[in-house]
Specification:
The protein is an alpha+beta fold. It has one helix at residues 45-80, and strands at 125-134, 139-145, 151-156, 161-166, 169-171, 181-185, 191-199, 202-209, 214-219, 225-232. The strands form two sheets. It has a five-stranded mixed beta sheet with strand order 5-1-2-10-9, with no helix packed on it. Strands 3-4-8-7-6 form a five-stranded antiparallel beta sheet, with no helix packed on it. Strand 3 and strand 4 form a beta hairpin. The radius of gyration is 69 Å and the shape is rod-shaped. The N and C termini lie far apart (164 Å).
Length: 234
């Protein structure tokens, strides 16, 4: 391609140079081949600042991570570390046992003997005496015994009376016949008389009353042993 004036023609660099006219005869200039090389661009100041700030931030984060690791690493290790095994104290089974001596014969156990009642308390009780005391408030019938006894008392009607059964009790010979009936007159407003008789293994004491009266009794647990039956008007 050819242009007038100072135009340039791009051809193969190995092709021969053709003179170009300039308007004057005999003038010519060589055809030039220009190669344009782009120079590398230098980073701007703003990009340098961003890079420096980013690097500084990375350094700060690394330092902070190191400090946090130093602070929390001991606690983390303590939390996940296995518990120390404490030595167990030696037991009697693990300790060496001394050589045992030959076993001696066991002492013979004493033979159990049946419990005997004290001599002061015989197996059966004995009714020793019957007495009565009268006053304006009540009439008391006193039965003297040689030991405490079990008893059963009850009131009956038509006629009015109260009986007391002394269990496992005999009548003393000085009071009269064990097979007969012993009678003692009282003759006050509440009690007419007292009758005593044997009844099997027990001794029955009957109080014949002159009125429908109430009664109560009390047995002493210390000598002298007495059973007191009190009769009162309702």
């Amino acid at each position: 391609m050819t242009d007038e004036g100072n135009s340039l023609e791009s051809t193969n660099p190995d092709a021969p140079v053709t003179p170009v006219g300039t308007g004057r005869s005999g003038d010519w200039m060589p055809r030039l081949h220009i190669n344009l090389v782009r120079e590398p661009r230098r980073p701007s100041a703003g990009k340098w600042i961003v890079r420096v700030v980013g690097a500084a931030l990375v350094v700060v984060l690394l330092c902070a991570g190191v400090q946090l690791g130093k602070h929390f690493l001991p606690a983390f290790r303590a939390a996940f570390a296995p518990a120390p095994v404490r030595p167990q104290p030696p037991t009697a089974a693990s300790q060496p046992q001394p050589a045992s001596a030959p076993l001696a014969a066991a002492p013979a156990k004493p033979q159990a003997t049946p419990m005997a009642l004290p001599s002061a308390l015989p197996a059966r009780a004995t009714l020793l005496a019957v007495r009565h005391i009268s006053n304006s408030a009540a009439t008391s019938i006193e039965l003297e015994l040689n030991r405490p006894v079990e008893l059963h008392a009850e009131a009956l009607h038509d006629p009015e009376r109260v009986f007391v059964d002394l269990l496992n009790t005999d009548i003393a010979p000085e009071m009269g016949s064990a097979t007969g009936i012993i009678t003692q007159d009282v003759s006050d407003a509440r009690v007419q008389r007292v009758r005593v008789a044997g009844r099997g293994t027990a001794t029955r004491v009957v109080l014949d009353l002159n009125c429908p009266c109430g009664y109560s009794y009390k047995m002493s647990q210390q000598p002298p042993y007495r059973l007191v039956v009190a009769v009162e008007k309702p």
